User: Fold this.
Amino acid sequence: MNILIYETYEKMSQAAAAIIAAQVLAKPDSILGLATGSTPFGTYTGLVKLYKEGILDFKRVKTFNLDEYVGIDKSDDQSYHFFMMENLFSKININARNINIPNGLANDLEKECAAYEKKIDAAGGIDLQLLGIGNNGHIGFNEPDVHFPAATHIVELSESTIEANARFFPDSGKVPRSAITMGTGAIMKSRRILLLASGGQKADVVKELVYGEVRPQLPASILRFHNDVTIIIDSEAGAGLHGKVI
Ligand code: GLP
Assistant:
């Protein structure tokens, strides 16, 4: 694992945007796996800036988002569709046909999961997967479990995730109880992985991810078996690590 610890959220976001930018410059038809949550916000701002400055071109880029809530409409401002449109897609020249986000309103959710997984494979697999990490170690919405769920699936969100995500909703009763998520299998098949974490509330989980045992109770720990993972964190999230702050 390549671990980069930056003093501030701004710097870590710039570094993450630089890695994604380099991927797109080297392979203009890159397949990017994208994440939501508050952490990648600065990274997306950085990518938009590079696009506006004429340095990046997203015309041939394809994207697959990790997850989406079940039961909320694309136009709902809490949906991950809305987040992605608002913070990235509406601000760059990506082709709408190249954007993929699971449909949490599909009539047949199981079918939607299988089709999503197939579509990633048919596109040639993900070149670079961006990830955040939940306080409980989840990636995408792969929650702590007794096994690593490999395939794209429907997940019942844990109480701690509902609580953590309640900050985006008017009240915790409004947080959807389930979601569609790419499984750890699709994530692990990505050729490169970039995981971001920011803030002191992530310090323990980041420490466990780096030094703890690989176990399904900490889904992110499976990344230790991947051969091209970069972790970019700020100094607060890296408080439990021995590495030097850049
Ligand atoms: C949600 C998303 C995850 C994300 C996590 C952390 O649960 N499904 O993909 O990593 O939140 O969010 P944040 O970056 O806001 O801490």
The two ends are 16 Å apart (CA to CA).
